[in-house]
Amino acid sequence: MSDTHAQQGQSFEFDVLVIGTGLAGLQYCLQLISLQPRLKIALISKAEAIECNSRYAQGGIAAAFLAEDSLESHISDTLIAGDGLCYLPAVEFIIRQGPEMIKQLGQYHVHFKKDSKGNLHLAQEGGHSHRRIFNCGDQTGLTITQTMNQLARHQQQIHFFEHHVAVNLITHYHPHRTDIQGEVLGAYVLDCDAGRIHTFLANSVILATGGAGKTYRYTTNPMVATGDGVAMAYRAGARVGNMEFYQFHPTLLHHHSLNNFLISEAVRGEGGLLKNAETGERFMKNYAPEQMELATRDIVARAIFSEIEHSQIGYVHLDITHQSKDFLKKRFPQIFQTLMSIGIDMSQDMIPVVPAAHYQCGGILTDIDGRTDLKRLYAIGETAFTGLHGANRLASNSLLEALVMGSNAARCTLKDISTPWKYSEHIPSWSAPSEVNTRRASQINAQWRGLRGEMTSYAGIVRTEAGLVDLLQLIMKRKKIIEEYYWKHSITRDFIELRNIILNAELIVRAALARRESRGGHYREDYPNKKAEAKESIAKLGLMDTSFD
Questions:
Q1: CA 444 to CA 494: how far, in whole Å?
Q2: Which residue in 71, 183, 379, 459 has the most C-beta neighbors within 10 A?
Q3: β-sheet bridge partners, residue 168
Q4: Among 55, 132, 297, 302, which one carries the catalytic annotation?
Q5: Does the annotation count 297 as an active-site position?
Q6: Could you tell me which residue, 544 or 386, shows the higher pLDDT?
Q7: Which residue, 401, 328, 520, is CA-closest to 53?
Q8: Residue 187, class by beta-carbon neighbours within 10 Å (0-12 exposed, 13-18 middle, 19+ buried)?
Q9: Per-residue pLDDT, 172
């Protein structure tokens, strides 16, 4: 963690400020430039631009392609997985764009996996009625992200700002008040290398910051996934929704030498079996006798959690030893090589796995074009709540949503950009406290470890009223400490992330407390049944309680 202390920096003006360099942010930039080549875009990344959630997506992109498949089947599977909370117009629109997005990736020169006869190899994943997962082996996210990243770097109009962390959006809610009401004008951004906070002004601001997996102790997400977009938008006055629905991926590798390594859903799609590590029993027959290992993620994750809770071993086994070594090396090259490096031969040995925080199904409330409640502020990708995923995301729908929403938002923001810029004289530069706390790093590490452990224990796969109430009290104590620190001390990246994570945790827990039922990825042990009417949960700054629409 950096010890650089923030000071006042420069002021920049762009047509568009994009915060986040995953698939959604890159797609937005590339599509906007194709529509209006003369625009000037700032693209902000907390680390190297390639480091994002999209990079770690192993599975692929879902799109109905085969003759025996259909768009209607893909829509139906998405609605079933979403457990009553999907927004049908969003589902239909995004799913119907699937084939077109695959063609577009082909134009980007993304090469999907083919079989020995030269036919596309479409994978099977949980919750899908057909093979429809376009993939690049087990490195789909990395392959696509690298390709699009390189395309963006060849565009002179796209200016990369790596190792820059957005602190706050500039609106009338920010302490540096302006006379511009209900409108986002830019963001204050920490340059981690220089230790200065710059003022970025833009006609449109695009949040593409990914999820908040680092809220939990066990996650498939990289270190950059700290819920920055949700936190900044909420503080600015935008509504957020369905925050209680955090999806847990069933199969994170359980090994002391590797953190955050996902074992793709596609392993189960190719016949992988889940077995109790103590008894050797194939246990999914007790939870989903028809779909078995290919049930939706919420069902499989809870099943694994239950098996672990009732055993003396802290994991279950994933067994794909019936497949040949040659097949596994070709189908899952990254997984095979990584497991071999720690002494696990997946063609002979069973793989120890546990559930882990994976994907934020809720987020910043947007329409199908990515528009939020605030003028000139858009949200796309995992940080946005479009209604596609409902209470539980269907496997491999996330990259599809990122591509579609990136394209849509690009078309929509052209209207904002056509309006002349006129507000720069009203925006003050960042004014930071000069006081420095030399014990900052150890204090922040302690707060972070404590919070992630508490969230995993009380707001994870299984929740109760008592646990959530106690957890909320702990969160509010931590939040008070952090907010006092924020106003008194110079800030760093690690502090910004901790502040955002604590706010995300509060939003998750408040929504989980308010939802007194079990639905999708939200399971209340004290309210195990689902209510007849499905309602979204909505939260907004200034409202003490989560409401339902």
A1: 7
A2: 379
A3: 188
A4: 297
A5: yes
A6: 386
A7: 401
A8: buried
A9: 65
Tokens of 178: 């302006």
Contacts of residue 376, Cβ cutoff 8 Å, sequence gap at least 6: 183, 184, 185, 202, 203, 204, 205, 416
More reliable by pLDDT, 3 or 522: 522
The Cα–Cα gap between 16 and 451 comes to 35
Q: Is 390 left (phi over 0), alpha (psi -120 to 50) or beta?
A: left
3-state secondary structure 444-491: HHHHHHHHHHHHHHHCCCCECHHHHHHHHHHHHHHHHHHHHHHHHCCC
Report the Cα 54 to chain-centroid distance in Å: 8
505 exposed, middle or buried (CB, 10 Å; 0-12, 13-18, 19+)? buried
Is CATH 3.40.50.300 the right assignment for the domain spanning 440-548?
no
What is the reported pLDDT for 3? Answer: 41
Average pLDDT, the chain: 90
Residue tagged 């762009």 (tokens): 14
Q: How many CB atoms lie within 10 A of CB 256?
A: 6
Query: With 60 as the cut, is the pLDDT of residue 5 above it?
Result: no
Predicted TM-score (pTM) of the model is 0.91
Domain boundaries, the chain: 7-245+361-426, 251-355, 440-548
Residue 439 in this model has a pLDDT that exceeds 90: no
CA nearest neighbour of 196 among 19, 8, 437: 8
Upper half-sphere CA count for residue 502 (Cβ side, 13 Å): 23
Q: Which CATH superfamily is domain 7-245+361-426 in?
A: FAD/NAD(P)-binding domain (3.50.50.60)
> Confidence class of residue 436 from pLDDT cuts 50, 70 and 90?
low
Query: CATH for 251-355, among 3.40.50.150, 3.40.640.10, 3.90.700.10, 3.30.300.20?
Result: 3.90.700.10
DSSP code, position 532: S
What is the strand order of the sheet 351-360 is part of? 246-253, 351-360, 316-319, 273-275
- Residue with the larger pLDDT of the pair 117 and 181: 117
